[in-house]
Design brief:
This protein is an alpha/beta fold. It folds into two domains: 228 residues, 3-Layer(aba) Sandwich (Malonyl-Coenzyme A Acyl Carrier Protein, domain 2), CATH 3.40.366; 64 residues, Malonyl-CoA ACP transacylase, ACP-binding (Alpha-Beta Plaits, 2-Layer Sandwich). It is 50% helix and 16% strand. The longest helix has 21 residues.
């Protein structure tokens, strides 16, 4: 069976994540230890023991989620079979490049930790807000953001997650106004998100230069299979293009609906495997594609069943 790999992004973290994998599988344990050594911090201890507020910090949650995905890959990688393509949601795109052999797990973890630091700094310099809009078509959310933005400030559709789920991002007051306008346009709910900045919006521009520098100092090879980029929703097959689009991703929307549709076009009969903590992407997948074949590999029990 041909597979497509999906990798979760920020928000999938929780205290205790990955501990069962480290207990059950030496390869997972070694991956966590290598990432701890590369970062110079006991990230795995924060993942397994908390405190929750430390794990929620952007510079910890991002490498923690990547480490979890990388640990699963270290165990199941040789048993996955043919892979037609991959995509990751926001920071999950780095995990996708690890799966494709373009980045090592330790280099990717260092990159996303630096990415998290830069995003947090940008958020402190210009505080922003994000909110999830549920039950309103994404094109209507984009239209509302455009109209509200004409009144001053910045608000954009930042995560186009599913046909009826879009996250908006920008300056706090325009985000609030856009949320109210979305409700007036028929949205079922608008939920403010607990974030440290206006991610995937122009407010993240100050972080771009630092991330570019970090990427330029990391060795990246050509991916073994296409990785569909968030910023373009197109398959990436070269390291140079991957680095450029990872920088663009900071300020561009996560075009997840289009990304999944592009993966479906690459491999119409593929099984989708979500690798890492949680099953959020599986839920979105079922709202984008009709009856997709789907498997989650995030816990030791799920991995053991897959290997058996």
């Amino acid at each position: 069976m041909v597979n497509v790999l999906l990798f979760p992004g920020q928000g999938a973290q929780k205290v205790g994540m990955g501990k069962d994998l480290a207990t059950a599988f030496p390869a997972a344990r070694e991956t966590f230890a290598a990432i701890d050594d590369a970062l110079g911090v006991l990230l795995s201890r924060t993942m397994w023991e908390g405190p929750e507020e430390a794990l929620l910090a952007t510079h910890n949650s991002q490498p923690a989620i990547l480490a979890h995905s990388a640990a699963v890959l270290a165990v199941v990688g040789e048993r996955l079979g043919p892979v037609a393509g991959a995509a990751g949601h926001s920071l999950g795109e780095y995990s996708a490049y690890v799966a494709a052999g373009a980045l090592t797990a330790v280099d990717a973890a260092a990159l996303v930790r630096r990415r998290g630091e830069l995003m947090q700094q940008a958020g402190l310099a210009r505080p922003g807000a994000m909110a999830a809009v549920l039950g309103l078509p994404s094109h209507d959310v984009e239209r509302v953001c455009g109209e509200v933005g004409l009144g001053g400030g910045t608000v954009v559709a930042a995560n186009l997650n599913a046909p009826d789920q879009t996250v908006i991002s920008g300056d706090p007051e325009p985000v609030q106004r856009a949320g109210e306008a979305c409700k007036a346009a028929g949205a079922k709910r608008v939920l403010p998100l607990k974030v440290s900045g206006a991610f995937h919006s122009p407010l993240m521009a100050p972080a771009a230069a630092g991330l570019h520098d970090a990427l330029m100092h990391v060795k990246m090879t050509e991916p073994a299979f296409p990785v569909v980029a968030n910023a373009s929703a197109a398959p990436v097959t070269t390291a140079a293009e991957a680095k450029r689009l990872l920088v663009d991703q900071l300020t561009a929307p996560v075009r997840w609906i289009e990304s999944v549709q592009r993966l479906a076009a690459l491999a119409p009969e593929a099984r989708y495997i979500e690798i890492g903590p949680g099953t959020v992407l599986g839920g979105l997948l079922k709202r984008i594609l009709p009856a997709p074949a789907y498997l989650s590999l995030g816990t030791a029990a799920e991995v053991e069943t897959f290997l058996a």
